[in-house]
Design a protein that fits this description.
Largest sheet: 2 strands, antiparallel
Shape: elongated
Strand content: under 5%
Structural class: mainly alpha
Number of strands: 4
Distance between the termini: 94 Å
């Protein structure tokens, strides 16, 4: 080779080169004398020095020939041998080869540029002379080598260094690992540079500088080089690491797109190859979808996007997509990325993509939905440079793909109205897609459109309606997305600045529509008058009436009518329609003005009609929102809270009740729900406010609640807890707000200020002690004219100080204690003062209770600053009670004759005050005794600890002496033992002494409280006294408090308590005069009294469980009352609340009879009762003790015994409800055994009925039909979700052991449920397909099918069921060896892989084949292994059992969870 200036004749020795399909083809001699590898050097045997020397020679020749020496045989053979041995050569040689080839390619491009500028490239001269031919030939060789180099750089394994682990190895080893890691990073960066350089220069051989001009005279050679360039770019798709590099990725995309952008060449073959390779690449590594979309973006002006989309749809068949899960996800990601980058291309080919919505592959449908969303949101966006926008004719639904695409004059992406409507209709139809992922994507797409104002105004009500319906979706992710869409629709609605509810807003909108109608009639009348030749002057005078006269004429109308008329005028002025009076004098001008005004009125009419419809839909969504607020799914609750807050901020009255429910969620045990409730309260009342306005907002909450009368004690407690939680989260600065609240004590808002101070006392303890206590002391000493208000303030002040004492982290200073004592004394004084005056409003009783609690709490505080009265509060209140009692009875001993109490004529409230103070004093003295016992124990432990410390010091001193060491050590041990035993004995004696005082010392031994007992009995039994509701209620509550104090008193009077609660047939019914006395005077009709007694029974059940336990059957019977009256329903709700509280707080063991009755209540007509029952099961299901699982067999089997009328779906629906709480695979396996055993026992019961044993809780025996019990058990089996392991267990029960042959033969419901299990198990079980989606990404279609062993088991069960349904005795089941083999393999893997949970250990197989699987069933039912159960003895299948009735014993599962 010679320089470019050498004559062309000197280049005659260079051979022509043709790019091969594979490099190995060049090892054979071609017939036409083309360039080939005649002599391959053995570079693998060369040393590094020899290889470098050979490369130095190549570099010299390439520099001399400007890169054309690549086509010489010697250089060609050497480079071929080096690339052939690429992986086996030294890594230091690879960068040098890459640099050599890229430099040669650059020099060839520079020569082409010189050739074009030289005289030989002048116009009219042939470009295919020898110089150009040699240059093209060398370029083909360079393209061949660069293509091969790119393949080597992308296909070779990339070395990585292990990341050093912390704390592993010595410091030297860690340093070495870190150095290796840095070295690997540098090597990766160097490899990235080499790939980028090779791909860039390979692209330069086609598209850089004068190379396109050079290839115009050689189309065949261009096709070869373009193919090599494209292949080099596609090599990047084979390596995930290569795609991660930005430079490599961009260079590879340019290599693919640049040949297609060359003008003057034939691209048909290259287009076909590119489409095929891109489709193949989508099946490759991660990241190929975005790579393919970027390639189409760079080649958007070529036919490649259209051809690729058409070819893509040919591969979207169900068979191909189902078998390739990765291809599904990659294809879906590509469609989304393409619609994001090239919306005009996707729109032009939408007719090709829309049929993919009918493909049974939800990732593809999901991608089409998201692509439509990108098209709708891309309207108005600037298109890529040189892009075209499809122009559509009016009336066409979508763009015709075969139509000519015209150039967009503005370069902005636009959508025809018809096309936009069709795309939105397509989205709306996908609301009902069978896949949750598609429905979720539709909701997200509409959410984005609503946020960006991409929805037409007339479609907002329709979208809102669809979103509200999706709030009841079966999948939690769809419900969450639906609520997010509702929130966005409310936030960005186009119907004016304010939305009000259906009340005033609907009335206002109706009047406004009527006003618009009147205006339109007036315009029509004016037009008719003008046409008929009426007096134009009169018309103009009426039309041009001044505004002042119109205002005077409006004085006769209401304020609403005037505001509506003004609003219409304002809208007309905003639309630029001034009316007919501004149009001039000509008739045509007046006609044009009237037409404009008519059009504006029509637009207003449509807008307000849509606004009313929008508000009506929001009102209708209230019930669903309130249902979601009580959902068991946390995301449902949190999203519903956000929707309710948004509605509340917009002023929709429909959200008022729901917002009250949101306030109650602050008591939730679920952290995110509680935080969401606090955030909702903050957004609603405190966000964006300073300290003063925040304090005013809090006070306004209480003021509005009191004025409206809607706020209850529950709401007040919720608001107080919300304020406290907000202060703990620093959403409220307590130290700054407390002074504002203190200043509000004197301006008529004292009640709200005291409640707020109580809530802030925990976080603002120091600020409260400094600034609030003096003001509170002054406030409580002020005289108020109203006794009720003064007592209410005393109660609130006492509650504030109780919270202040409870939140103190350390000792309260003496000054604060003195103020507390003064305030406590003043509260007690107010209580006694109003009693003496006979002014006893209802507020007196809570005030007295809080005053007594405060005095006792101060005594337990034990501060030295306490005065004498507060050191012994029991004596103080005993003295007060004694004086009150003497004041009523007329002196000590004057009220008793012959053991009977004769009450004088006194005021009824005063008598109730005595009974109330006596009951609460007994309870507070019990608490005071327990506090004294705890204080003595702490003091004794401190003394023992000091004594032991002293003994340890003495023992250390005695160890120095060596004489008698062993004897002295023994004596010391004996002394320590005696001291320890003495301490234990002292503690026991103290406990016994305090228990004796509480048992007999308070209510017996002729104490004051003992003398009050006849008064309490008289409140219930005296004919005259029990006629007063206050007397009988206070007397009953005080009697219950006495029963709480003393077990003996509880045993003596428990019958009286239950006689008041359950006066009719049953336990606890009193006989004779006592029962008659109770029945008179309206005692039994007092619902408030009975509800209070139910709460008291709950306390007694916790305090004295053994005493109250025999009476719990009557308590449970309250849950299944047949009386539909309001009193019975409220009493049932109270009983359920009490039992739920006891069970969830571990005060009571959940009994099966309780859960059975509660299960029926989950679907009762009373919404509050149903919600509490659902909460009970939801909270029990969250516990680790598996309560629901352990009691489930007995609950399901005995469910027909307690049938409730009016429950939708009956027992089957209740079974399906409770089975949703069984989720673990091992629980399902255990329930298969338990349900099967019970089903077998029930089916084998003779006579068609099974007599259920009477339980202690119920107190009465009931019978249940066999058919109902079998139906419940069968539906329980069918309601569970079966994995492969569970299917094999069910196969073992049904086919191998034939345990259900009798039930399957005679009960169709058993066969139907088992066949439903088979059908459901055969469906694909993709994660998140139709339930709560927990996976991060959508699974591929077709994944999750049952294994081969499970399929064989399902076929065997189906065959057995069908055979038994036709009455055959026995069936020869085909050999199920694969099933058994797979089961044994799965069990072996499980034993090695995962530990067994407690209670689910693998059963030990018996040596003999009889009774397989019976051991585990017997063990779970409390029977020893090997025990024979006569109830499950096998019987002939062909003969139905006959004989006497049999009793079936239930599984003893009550103790499994303890």
């Amino acid at each position: 080779s010679t320089h470019l200036a050498v004559p062309v004749a000197a280049l005659g020795g260079m051979k022509d080169f043709t790019l091969p399909f594979k490099p190995e083809e060049l090892l054979a001699r071609p017939a036409d004398g083309r360039l080939w590898v005649a002599d391959v050097p053995d570079v693998e045997s060369w040393s590094e020095k020899e290889v470098n020397k050979a490369l130095d020679g190549v570099v010299g020749r390439l520099l001399t020939s400007q890169g054309k020496d690549l086509a010489e045989e010697k250089t060609f053979s050497l480079l071929f041998a080096i690339l052939q041995s690429w992986q086996r050569l030294d890594e230091a040689l690879q960068p040098r080869v890459v640099d050599l080839l890229t430099d040669a390619a650059k020099r060839l491009g520079a020569d082409a540029q010189k050739l074009r500028k030289s005289g030989s490239a002048a116009k009219g001269k042939d470009k295919s002379d020898a110089t150009g031919a040699a240059l093209r030939n060398a370029s083909k060789v360079a393209a061949f080598f660069l293509r091969w180099t790119c393949e080597r750089l992308t296909s070779g394994p990339e070395k990585r260094a292990a990341r050093p682990r912390r704390g592993k190895g010595s410091a030297l080893q860690q340093a070495e690992q870190q150095a290796a890691l840095e070295e690997a990073k540098e090597a990766s960066k160097a490899l990235e540079r080499q790939r980028s350089m090779a791909l860039t220069e390979l692209n330069g051989l086609v598209a850089r500088g004068a190379m396109p001009w050079l290839w115009l005279s050689d189309p065949t050679g261009w096709q070869q080089v373009a193919g090599a360039c494209s292949d080099g770019g596609f090599f990047a798709l084979d390596s995930a690491e290569a795609l991660k590099g930005k430079d490599t990725r961009q260079a590879a995309q340019q290599c693919i797109a640049a040949p297609l952008l060359q003008e003057g060449q034939q691209h048909s073959n290259l287009l076909v190859a590119t489409v095929s390779k891109l489709l193949h690449g989508l099946r490759g590594v991660e990241g190929t979808a975005a790579f393919a979309a970027d390639c189409l973006l760079q080649a958007h002006s070529t036919p490649l996007p259209r051809l690729f989309l058409v070819e893509l749809t040919q591969h979207c068949t169900a068979q191909e997509l189902t078998s390739q899960g990765a291809f599904q996800r990659s294809l879906a990601a590509f469609l989304v990325a393409l619609s994001e980058r090239l919306p005009h291309v996707v729109l032009a080919n939408i007719s090709v993509l829309l049929p993919l919505l009918d493909v049974d592959c939800y990732p593809i449908r999901q991608a089409i939905v998201e692509s439509i969303g990108h098209l709708l949101s891309a309207e108005g966006r600037k298109l890529p440079s040189g892009a075209h926008n499809a122009q559509q004719e009016e009336g066409d639904g979508v763009a015709d793909p075969e139509a000519e695409i015209a150039q967009s004059s503005s370069g902005i992406f636009t959508l025809a109205p018809a096309t936009k409507n069709d795309l939105l209709e397509t989205l709306f139809t996908r609301f009902l897609d069978k896949s949750v992922w598609v429905r979720y994507r539709v909701l997200q797409t509409l959410n984005n459109l609503a946020s960006n104002n991409g929805l037409p105004r007339e479609l907002w009500p329709r979208v809102l309606d669809l979103a509200i319906r999706r709030m009841q979706d079966t999948a939690s992710m769809s419900r969450k997305a639906a609520m997010q869409l509702v929130r966005k629709l409310v936030e960005f609605h186009p119907y004016g600045p304010a939305l009000k509810g259906s009340g005033d807003e609907r009335a206002k909108a109706t009047k406004l529509l009527n006003e618009i109608q009147e205006r339109m009639k007036k315009l029509k009348a004016e037009e008719l008058a003008e046409l008929e030749g009426a007096d134009a002057a009169d018309g103009e005078e009426g039309a041009t009436e001044p505004a002042e006269k119109r205002q005077k004429r409006c004085k006769g109308k209401t304020e609403t009518d005037v505001s509506i008329a003004r609003e219409v005028d304002k809208d007309l002025e905003a639309n630029g329609e001034a009316g007919a009076e501004d149009a001039g004098e000509s008739a045509s001008a007046r006609h044009a003005a009237r037409e404009k005004q008519r059009e504006a009125l029509q637009r207003m009419q449509q807008c307000y009609a849509q606004r009313v419809h929008f508000v009506e839909l929001l009102d209708a969504a209230e019930a669903r929102l309130r249902g979601l607020l009580s959902s068991k799914t946390a995301t449902d609750v949190t999203e519903a809270i956000s929707v309710v807050v948004e509605l509340r901020l917009r002023g929709v009255p429909a959200a008022a009740k729901a917002f009250h429910q949101v306030l109650g969620l602050v008591w939730s045990r679920h952290g995110p729900i509680k935080d969401a409730a606090v955030d909702a309260f903050y957004r609603m009342h405190l966000e964006g406010r300073d300290t003063a306005s925040a304090a005013e907002a809090v006070l306004q909450i209480y003021k509005d609640g009191f004025n409206s009368g809607e706020i209850t004690h529950t709401h007040l407690a919720s608001v107080q807890e919300l304020i406290q939680q907000a202060a703990e989260k620093d959403l409220i600065v307590a130290a700054e707000v407390i002074p504002k609240m203190v200043s509000a004590l004197g301006d008529g808002r004292a009640a709200g200020a005291l409640r707020a101070l109580t809530a802030l006392s925990a976080t603002g303890h120091d600020a409260l002690a400094k600034s609030a206590l003096p003001k509170v002391q002054e406030f409580i000493c002020r005289s108020i004219s109203s006794p009720a208000e003064q007592l209410e303030h005393a109660r609130l002040v006492a509650q504030l100080l109780l919270r202040f004492l409870g939140s103190a982290k350390g000792a309260v200073n003496d000054a604060a204690v003195s103020r507390l004592c003064a305030v406590s004394q003043q509260c007690s004084y107010l209580v006694v003062q109003h009693f003496v005056k006979g002014e006893v409003p209802p507020q007196w009783f809570p005030a007295a209770m809080c005053a007594m609690d405060l005095s006792f709490e101060l005594a337990q505080h034990g501060s030295k600053a306490l005065d004498t009265a507060h050191r012994s509060p029991d004596k103080v209140w005993e003295n007060i009670l004694n004086r009150m009692l003497c004041g009523i009875l007329g002196g000590q001993g004057d009220g008793q004759e012959n053991g009977e109490v004769k009450v004088r004529k006194v005021q009824v409230p005063q008598l109730g005050c005595v009974a109330f103070v006596a009951g609460h004093l007994a309870l507070r003295m019990l608490i005071f005794l327990e506090g004294l016992q705890s204080a003595l124990k702490r003091q004794r432990l401190a003394q023992e600890e000091a004594k032991l410390a002293e003994q340890r010091e003495k023992s250390k001193e005695k160890k120095a002496s060596k004489k008698g060491k062993g004897a002295k050590a023994a004596e010391e041990d004996e002394e320590k033992a005696e001291t320890s035993m003495g301490g234990v004995g002292l503690e026991e004696r103290e406990a016994e002494a305090f228990a004796q005082i509480a048992e007999t010392g308070l209510l017996y031994s002729n104490r004051l409280l003992d003398r009050v007992k006849p008064l309490l009995f008289a409140c219930l039994l005296d004919k005259e006294l029990r006629g007063y509701p206050l007397i009988r209620r206070v007397g009953a509550i005080s009697l219950c408090k006495f029963m709480t104090v003393s077990k003996r008193f509880c045993e003596e009077n428990l019958q009286l308590l239950f006689s008041v609660l359950f006066p009719k047939n049953g336990k606890g019914q009193l006989q004779g005069a006592t029962q008659e006395a109770i029945a008179e005077g309206g005692l039994l009709e007092d619902l408030t009294l009975r509800q209070s007694l139910l709460v008291a029974v709950g306390d007694l059940l916790f305090r004295h469980p053994n005493v109250v336990e025999p009476w719990t059957g009557r308590l449970y019977s309250t849950l299944s009352t047949a009386d539909a009256s309001g009193n019975a329903v409220d009493l049932r709700l109270t009983a359920l609340l009490v039992l739920t509280h006891l069970v969830l707080n571990d005060m009571m063991k959940p009994r099966p009879v309780l859960l059975i009755r509660a299960l029926w209540l989950t679907a009762c007509n009373h919404e509050s009762t149903a919600r509490v029952a659902r909460i009970l099961f939801q909270e029990l299901a969250k516990r680790s003790t598996n309560v629901v699982y352990n009691l489930l067999p007995e609950i399901v089997a005995r469910l027909p015994e307690h049938v409730e009328d009016g429950v939708e779906g009956g027992a089957v629906a209740r079974v399906q409800y409770i089975m949703q709480f069984v989720e673990k695979e091992k629980h399902i396996e255990g329930l298969i055994e338990k349900f099967t055993l019970r089903l077998e026992q029930c089916a084998s019961g003779a006579g068609g009925e099974v007599a259920a044993e009477a339980t202690q809780e119920e107190g009465e025996g009931t019978t249940a039909k066999v058919e109902d019990t079998v139906s419940c058990l069968a539906h329980a089996l069918g309601a569970m979700n079966y994995s492969d392991r569970c299917i094999l267990r069910l196969h073992d029960v049904v086919v191998t052991r034939k345990a259900l042959n009798l039930a399957l033969s005679y009960y169709p419901v058993a066969r139907e449920c088992l066949l439903a299990v088979v059908e459901k198990a055969r469906k694909p079980r993709g994660k998140g397909e139709d339930g709560d989606a927990k996976a991060a990404a959508a699974p591929a279609e077709g994944e999750g099918k049952a294994s081969g062993a499970a399929q064989a088991a399902l076929d065997a069960m189906e065959q057995l069921v069908n055979t038994l349904a036709h009455g055959k005795e026995e069936m020869e089941i085909p050999a199920t060896a694969p099933v058994a083999t797979a089961q044994r393999k799965n069990e072996a893997k499980r034993k090695n892989a995962e530990p067994e949970e407690p209670g689910f250990e693998e059963e030990k197989k018996p040596r003999k084949g009889k009774g397989r699987g019976r051991g585990r069933a017997d063990k779970e039912n409390g029977q020893p292994n090997g025990a024979k159960n006569e109830a499950v003895a096998e019987k002939p299948v062909a003969e139905k059992p006959k004989g006497r009735k049999r009793r079936v014993k239930a599984d003893q599962d009550d103790d499994d969870y303890e």
